[in-house]
Amino acid sequence: MKKIIFYEKPGCINNTKQKAILLAAGHQLEARNLLTEVWTPTKLRAFFGTKPVVEWFNYSAPQIKSGQIIPAQLDENTALKLMLSEPLLIRRPLIQVGNEFAVGFDLETINNWIGINSVDNSRDLETCPRGGKSLPNYC
What we know:
By secondary structure, this protein is of the alpha+beta class. It has helices at 13-24, 41-45, 62-65, 76-85, 107-114; strands at residues 3-8, 28-33, 94-97, 100-103.
């Protein structure tokens, strides 16, 4: 059993499902509101690890859906500045276990990292059920 800090958007359908999976596996959750958390560039950057900048973003965010922000055109510093000013841009969930950090909820990755009861890779727990399928939509 792990103690997990889980940064979510309250009311997000997928975040609710993700938390239920973690709780069913016996983990302790401390859910925090990603949108009201006080972020610094260093604190936020830790969650992205070696992922490319394009994988840091919530493609359901209005600025991305409208084309105002194009993640593939951003460098790391610009991406962080944008996310600090508009937390809806941050891909969810952000997960912290001790001094280890992750973004997103890929079932196999989560299972290998902290363990969950079952891994059903046919379940998409990252694409927003309210968004279209033309882009990856991270609720």
